Backbone:
């Protein structure tokens, strides 16, 4: 009968790859939801994205509600 | 640690807490945003404009922004949840609270204070019409600077506190308070004047605090429950 051994992970067992992925999610997610002024979509739509501010308008109310600077 | 399970727990708890945050804001924050944007729009209505068409376009615009409240809540929730997950994974063994649920709720309380509430005391949430577009970059730098000072201060003084025992740990907390008070005095205030009624602004700020607090309570609760149930820190070999 196979025996399973449970082992608690120590600090050495920190998931470096997992933390790197979460760090990327944190930075990109925070920028899009709280600070983008057309930058992300300008990669696709060019200068027009800065005028349309699609993501800014979509996240506008949450930016104010969560305390981020907005206008 | 089971990396995939760890990431899934972070994303699910962050997304759901963000959904709660966005939904709560629809009820408690939106009435204040509606009042402020309505005042802002009245100032933009020029003589000779088709008033009915102007307000119809405004309503469409506001419907779009309100819909974004929930989507942005989920996005921001996953983002802040990712930060929470990183800090939890690194500090889990030294967090007080006994169970993983207790540790998670304790960390959520600390992060609510350090990431949100302490910076809020210097640079509180503001309604539309308060901030000028020309000052946005400056206000963003000020706000992020204060958040960075608060976060780095918390980490540094936490490290210092580990060198002390008993009541001497309070020296580290006192050090954090001195850092924050000094930053509070040194950093300039937000450059924009508030032309709206103080009652409207105060009500909005209380609603903002309630919404963000709901997020952090849900984040701590869900993350703690999921971590306790699936135990991603335990290897089975």
Residues:
């Amino acid at each position: 009968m196979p025996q399973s051994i449970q082992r608690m992970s120590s600090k050495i067992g920190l998931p470096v790859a997992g933390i790197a992925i979460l760090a990327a999610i944190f930075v990109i997610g925070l920028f899009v939801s709280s600070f983008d002024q057309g930058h992300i979509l300008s990669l696709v739509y060019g200068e027009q994205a800065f005028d349309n501010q699609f993501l800014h308008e979509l996240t506008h109310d949450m930016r104010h509600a969560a305390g981020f600077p907005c206008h | 640690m089971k990396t995939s399970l760890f990431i899934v727990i972070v994303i699910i708890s962050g997304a759901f807490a963000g959904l709660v945050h966005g939904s709560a804001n629809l009820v408690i924050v939106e009435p204040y945003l509606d009042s402020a944007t309505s005042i802002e729009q009245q100032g933009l209505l020029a003589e000779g404009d088709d008033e009915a068409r102007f307000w119809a376009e405004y309503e469409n615009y506001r419907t779009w922004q309100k819909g974004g409240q929930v989507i942005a809540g989920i996005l921001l929730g996953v983002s802040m949840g990712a930060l929470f997950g990183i800090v939890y994974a690194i500090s889990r063994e030294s967090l007080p609270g006994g169970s993983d649920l207790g540790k998670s709720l304790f960390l959520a309380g600390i992060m609510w204070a350090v990431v949100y509430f302490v910076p809020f005391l210097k640079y509180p949430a503001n309604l539309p019409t308060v901030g000028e577009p020309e000052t946005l970059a400056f206000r963003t730098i000020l706000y992020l600077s204060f958040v960075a000072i608060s976060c780095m201060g918390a980490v540094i003084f936490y490290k210092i506190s580990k060198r002390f025992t008993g009541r001497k740990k309070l020296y580290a907390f006192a050090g954090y308070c001195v850092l924050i008070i000094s930053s509070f005095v040194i950093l300039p205030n937000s450059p924009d004047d508030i032309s709206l009624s103080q009652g409207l602004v105060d009500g909005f700020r209380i609603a903002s605090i309630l919404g963000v607090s709901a997020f952090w309570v849900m984040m701590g609760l869900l993350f703690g429950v999921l971590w306790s149930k699936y135990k991603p820190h335990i290897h089975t070999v």
